[in-house]
Design a protein that fits this description.
Helices cover 39% and strands 22% of the residues. The chain has helices spanning 28-42, 62-72, 92-101, 115-120, 127-139, 158-170, 188-194, 203-219, 238-244, 273-281, 294-305, 321-328, 343-346, 349-356, and strands spanning 2-7, 47-54, 75-85, 105-111, 145-151, 175-180, 223-226, 229-231, 249-252, 257-260, 265-269, 287-291, 312-313, 332-334, 338-341.
């Protein structure tokens, strides 16, 4: 079983973020107690992966992380246990205690090593803190480190992006997640865009940045196993891969999503800290759910499968004129059992999905 643990607390909110989070930190103790209680209500089998996401899970003390891990109880000896972290939170002592608590993989939100860009998007760390966090994590014994980078940031040019990629690859990290900035409704950055204070990158620049990323990571020996994810051999994110391969997972915490793949039921906890803590304290889980229909399931398998280098099973995709055209143009390849989108086709991924579902 895969467990996702949502930690909604953040010291400050990034300018681009629309995830459920809060900058009020005073209810952490109550929240962790609620997490432990919800886990007790919902435990189901041995944990293969545990993923602390947010928010900023690294704002919690290592002892709180340990309590949540221990509450899960049955954990496979080779389980992947990931914690998302902000570089500014990762002191040498904290990293050592996180290792002792059971965390064996870090996902560090770097976004950029450029101080100007970091300030522009509202990150609370600087480039030097990012470098120190990665090196301190490695010194503390973390041999499975992932970092996030972003491209398409306002004011970011190819030279700056190239430097970020090179810096990341020189650090000897095992995994790299790279996301194109999206302007989500209601975020501070979107408001700045609407007021003309920042300028959105054009599509050609974004494509060139993505191509540069793919070229550099391939030369460095990383496998491009999902549209936004690159890993050295045997260092794929096992937890995130479960989402793309239709495996079940339990989401714990306010706003967390769960999926029962046998009954085809998707559920999600209320995105409200007060309501969540109150309901769990009464022994109730405050959630909604939906049944995933056969057609929804097929469409989701296609959408998610085409994002990966494993592709989608051929029987899920109708034989149509669009498919034949993409095959002839080298945007999709036929492996015999699966259809896989090539790097050339990734630029048109949304259109390809639309045509094949």
């Amino acid at each position: 079983m895969h467990y996702y643990i949502h930690i909604p607390f953040c010291v400050s909110r990034c300018a681009y973020c629309d995830f459920f989070s809060t900058t009020s930190l005073e209810r952490q103790t109550e929240y962790v107690a609620a997490l432990v209680r919800e886990i007790g209500m919902r435990r189901n089998g041995t944990a293969d992966t545990i993923y602390f996401g947010g928010g900023t899970p690294s704002v919690l003390e290592p002892d709180a992380i340990r309590r949540v891990i221990e509450a899960i109880g049955s954990i496979d000896a080779s389980a992947e246990i990931t914690l998302e972290a902000n570089p500014g939170d990762l002191t040498e002592d904290k990293l050592r205690l996180l290792r002792q608590a059971g965390v064996n993989r870090l996902s560090i939100g770097i976004q950029s090593f450029d101080d100007i860009l970091l300030r522009r998007i509202g990150r609370r760390h600087n480039g030097q803190q990012a470098l120190h966090a990665i090196r301190d994590a490695q010194s503390a014994g973390f041999d499975n480190v992932s970092i996030d980078l972003m491209y398409g940031l306002p004011g970011q040019d190819m030279t700056t992006w190239q430097k970020d990629i090179e810096t990341a690859l020189q650090l000897g990290i095992q995994h790299l997640s790279c996301y194109c900035l999206s302007y989500e409704q209601g975020t501070r950055l979107t408001l700045q865009l609407e007021r003309g204070e920042v300028k959105e990158q054009d599509e050609d620049t974004l494509n060139d940045m993505y191509d540069r990323l793919c070229e550099q990571t391939e030369q460095a020996g990383y496998e491009h196993y999902e549209v936004s994810n690159f890993a050295l051999p045997s260092f794929h994110s096992r937890h995130n891969s479960s989402y793309w391969t239709d495996e079940p997972y339990i989401g714990v915490g306010a706003g967390a999503h769960s999926y029962d793949n046998e009954r085809r039921i998707r559920s999600w906890n209320v995105s409200d800290l007060d309501k969540y803590i109150s309901a769990i304290s009464r022994g109730e889980r405050p959630y909604e759910q939906e049944l995933v229909t056969d057609e929804q399931h097929r469409m989701e398998q296609i959408m998610l499968g085409l994002r990966t280098n494993q592709g989608v099973k051929k029987e899920l995709v109708a034989d149509n004129a669009h498919l034949k055209d993409y095959l002839s143009r080298g945007m999709i390849i036929d492996t015999g059992t699966h259809y896989v989108v090539t790097r050339h086709g990734i630029r048109l991924l949304n259109r390809i999905v639309e045509h094949l579902v």
